[in-house]
User: Fold this.
Amino acid sequence: MKVAIQGGQASFHHLAARQYFNGQEFEMAECRTFRQLCQVLQNGKADRAVMAIENSLLGSILPNYALLQEYSFHISGETYLHIRHNLMALPGQSLKDIRFVCSHPLALLQCSEFLEQHPRLRAQESFDTAESAREIREKLLPGTAAIAGRLAAERYQLTILAEEIENVKQNYTRFLILSRKAVRENGAIADKTSLNFYLKHRVGALAEALDIFRRCGLNLTLIQSLPVPGRPSEYAFQVDLEGERRKSLEQGIEELRRLSDKIQVLGIYPKGALPHDYSGGKAA
Assistant:
């Protein structure tokens, strides 16, 4: 099996893939961007893709929701990863030697308080956390540090100058497992559903849609709206629903059809285990 990830070896996407496919052998297709990840999966150069979709500190990753609308992939699973950021540099460097800090933009945002406490550090965006660490090692860059996971420091033989510098320690990212067609990854009960639907542009349409889920006994755990390209003032909605009663889900979708111009079932899959100190998509 080949799994597409955004980033490289020792990145958080790599860790999420290892966590989800624990005990299974797989090769990685490393991608610089999430769009490239989608293209690799669509072109058959990977069997699965692992995509970050929301973070407990920063919320939804909106461009990735847009990609889910654009590409007709299926969500076959999800996993939550505890994100611990560390500042790392070449051996022999200390924090006072560092002038530049490189990492993925989302990682820099998750560590914004640490960077504010050290105003002489200049943040530089890169396409991946672990690749920032790799570049420091390969180019032997003095005065430059990376923000990445501990595995990156070990892999690229860097010294950790500051541990766990994220703004909030209960920092988790939810990752989706994507495939070109619907698959069952394991024998677990498929008790979570992701839907994407457009609503007719009239007063009360969204309230009616949400009431359908309530009446059918489907627990709404996420709702995300995105503008519809080429259709000003109209929005698509993506929702996550929990409930393993297939008849209730089918009834809800059928009732939703009278309100929606378009419904797409993105996936029916086993919900990921929430970490013990993670609560409702926000830092505990």
